[in-house]
Amino acid sequence: MNSNKPIAVIILNWNGHDLLNEYLPQVVATTDSAVADIIVADNGSTDNSVELLKAKFPDVKLLQFGTNHGFAQGYNLAIEQTQYKYTILLNSDVATAPGWITPLYEYMEANPNVGACQPKLLAYKQKDEFEYAGASGGFIDRNGYPYCRGRIFGTVEKDHGQYDDVISVFWATGAALMIRSQVYLTAGGLDKDFFAHMEEIDLCWRVLLMGYDIKVVPQSLVYHLGGGSLPASNPRKTYLNFRNNLLMLHKNLPDSTRSRKLFVRRLLDTIAWAKFMATFDFKNANAILKAHNDFRTMRKRYTSHPDIDLLDQRSDTHRNIIVDYYLRGRKTWK
């Protein structure tokens, strides 16, 4: 799929007729067609998503896959088949604000050392609040727990413009991730073994290891529904989050620190398991057990590890958010 435009806005779809019908009109209306093509990569949908696209959105380009490859491999296939300087991975439950693409594009053009960036994410239903999955930039703490500028664990802040400055982050949300396409491919893309959840953090970790910076550009604004695939309390989501977090740490930590940090993380996961057990939430407790069992098998696939520990090297990863949040009562980024 060739184009003279620099940006591909790729929306991955699987049986998302209703989401496309609600959100895609705003994406089309607010995206500068002079610099970007909107592409829907369909992951083998069995509803009438494709028929909707052909009938209602004739200017949107369509890639069709015969099966559901998951979030990670679906995007890998789509980016391999397109030839754009930049790719924006955009969730199907994201509504974009007018002019959203310009600040991202201008910033990437002006800063070749930046491999990826994200806009500010606000909640679609509470537009004065940050959105859980990305807020105003993502980080991880010393134990590998993800959090955001504007969201720590379950506490989501209201947006008062307090995080409108452009800063370096550890990860950019996969809900609206702009990345240099060649950097994406060189880094190996999203890990298909993750299937879904935390795969963008793993990708961003590898982009950082390549020597690139990652930024949040809050002058670009989008609204994310969130939970469009799985609700937060779903045991499948619990399983993927716990398993993938362990895999991410195993992959991206060096031999010198990996065993120690994974030992600490697995102890903390045991506390999470005990909490589910104490509240009689046996499905989510069992999901944690399955995550750890599958991790022990899947980690054997990863035999190459970096020489440096970004969790030690970067100042923004020294925080212990469990201590800060639960013991010190620090519920906000500031």
Give an overview in words.
This protein has 334 residues and is an alpha/beta fold. The protein has 2 domains: 7-224, Spore Coat Polysaccharide Biosynthesis Protein SpsA, Chain A (Alpha-Beta Complex); 235-327, no CATH class. 39% of the residues lie in helices and 20% in strands. It has helices at residues 17-30, 49-56, 70-80, 101-110, 181-187, 199-209, 235-252, 255-278, 282-298, 310-313, 321-327; strands spanning 7-13, 36-43, 61-65, 86-90, 94-96, 114-123, 138-140, 146-148, 151-152, 155-156, 167-168, 176-180, 213-224. Strands 1, 2, 3, 4, 5, 6, 11, 12 and 13 form a 9-stranded mixed sheet that branches. Strands 7-8 form a two-stranded antiparallel ribbon. Helix 7 (235-252) packs parallel to helix 9.
Short summary:
The protein has eleven helices and 13 strands. With 334 residues, it is an alpha/beta fold. It is globular, with a radius of gyration of 19 Å.
Give a quick account of the main beta sheet: strands, pairing sense, barrel closure: 9 strands, mixed
How many distinct folded domains?
2
> Considering the protein shown, what is the CATH homologous superfamily of the largest domain?
Spore Coat Polysaccharide Biosynthesis Protein SpsA, Chain A
CATH class wording of the largest domain: Alpha Beta
Distance between the termini: 44 Å
Looking at the structure, the CATH topology of the largest domain is Spore Coat Polysaccharide Biosynthesis Protein SpsA, Chain A
Indicate the proportion of strand residues.
Answer: 15-25%
Number of helices: 11
CATH architecture of the largest domain: Alpha-Beta Complex
Uncertain regions spanning at least 5 consecutive residues: none
Mean of residue pLDDT values:
95
- Quick one: overall form? globular
Helix-strand topology string:
EHEHEHEEHEEEEEEEHHEHHHHH
Taking all Cα atoms into account, the compactness measure Rg is 19 Å
**Residue share in helix:** 25-40%
Briefly note the structural class of the backbone: alpha/beta
Strand runs, count: 13
